[in-house]
Amino acid sequence: MDVRMNERHIADLQDVTKVYGSGRNTVTALRGVNLRIDPGEFLAVVGPSGSGKSTLLHILGCMDVPTTGTVEIDGEPVPRENERKRTALRGEKIGFVFQAFHLLNELSVRENIELPRMFLRRTNGSRLLKPEELIAKVHMPVALLDRRPTEISGGERQRVAIARALANNPSMLLCDEPTGNLDSANSEAVMAIFDSLNRAGGTIVVVTHNPEVASHASRMVTLKDGQVVEAESP
Ligand SMILES: Nc1ncnc2c1ncn2[C@@H]1O[C@H](COP(=O)(O)OP(=O)(O)OP(=O)(O)O)[C@@H](O)[C@H]1O
Ligand SMILES: [Mg+2]
């Protein structure tokens, strides 16, 4: 077997530091984080408020860059200066799910799901999934595609947001408090989706305060004051 195969990670963060602001108003959000994520992992990131979880997720998602340190996504170095290249890398490799859904109410569910296509490189076209396939992946009926986000429940909205995040067939699905606005029944529905995606080989990173959600993961990383203080299998 090719030895390099073993070295291939979906994400590889080395000595990542993130400092916000300048002068007297600096906040150090991450201090020397090393993190590798393997294909097919389901990782939970936990830790107190302000410990750097969202910052870490934004860096993993190529939405932000570290102040120092290096990031590789799926074997490709994330460029610090070239924002256009970073956006392209994100469009190709990353799916992102927010706590507050971030759907556009004036568009149908179908249009919301199709939106990422506009930002993707044409060469990536073959990897794009159809709205019908995507809505099935999040355990919802095709009829829902013709409704608007305002005409479905909060739990359904989050499932649509997950479908949208999967539209580019991402290497890694990143979720920041995906169940933070959901009741326990809807949280369970979202977790069932993550479980089935992960069983199918998908790589998932979930930031959560909810121990029930974290218990679905195959590995847990705890952040405190911007440092990884604990990394374990739950
Ligand atoms: N854009 C920003 N500018 C300045 N400081 C920031 C910015 N974003 C985050 N911070 C600070 O960086 C630190 C880490 O923030 P981060 O949002 O990563 O924490 P978190 O673990 O996600 O917290 P929570 O659980 O409340 O969402 C905090 O002290 C926060 O105030
Ligand atoms: Mg956060």
The number of strands is 10
Largest sheet entry: 6 strands, mixed
CATH topology: Rossmann fold
What is the top-level CATH class? Alpha Beta
Name the bound molecules.
adenosine-5'-triphosphate, magnesium ion
* CATH architecture title: 3-Layer(aba) Sandwich
* Residues in β-strands, percent: 25-35%
**SSE pattern, N- to C-terminal:** HEEEHEEHEHHHHEHEHEE
How far apart, in Å, are the first and last alpha carbons?
30 Å
What is the name of the CATH superfamily?
Answer: P-loop containing nucleotide triphosphate hydrolases
Per the principal axes of the C-alpha atoms, what is the gross shape?
globular
Structural class, please? alpha/beta
Task: Tell me the domain tally.
Answer: 1
Arrangement of strands in the largest sheet: 6-7-8-3-9-10
The helix fraction, in percent, is 25-40%
Mean pLDDT score: 91
Structure overview:
By secondary structure, the chain is of the alpha/beta class. It has helices at residues 3-7, 53-60, 83-93, 109-114, 116-119, 131-137, 154-165, 184-199, 211-214, and strands at residues 11-20, 27-37, 42-46, 68-73, 76-77, 94-97, 172-176, 204-207, 219-224, 227-232. Helix 6 (131-137) packs across helix 7. The longest helix has 16 residues, at 184-199. It is globular, with a radius of gyration of 18 Å. The protein starts with a helix and ends with a strand. 38% of the residues are buried. The structure holds adenosine-5'-triphosphate and magnesium ion (MG). Magnesium ion binds next to helix 2. Residues 53-54, 176 line the site of magnesium ion.
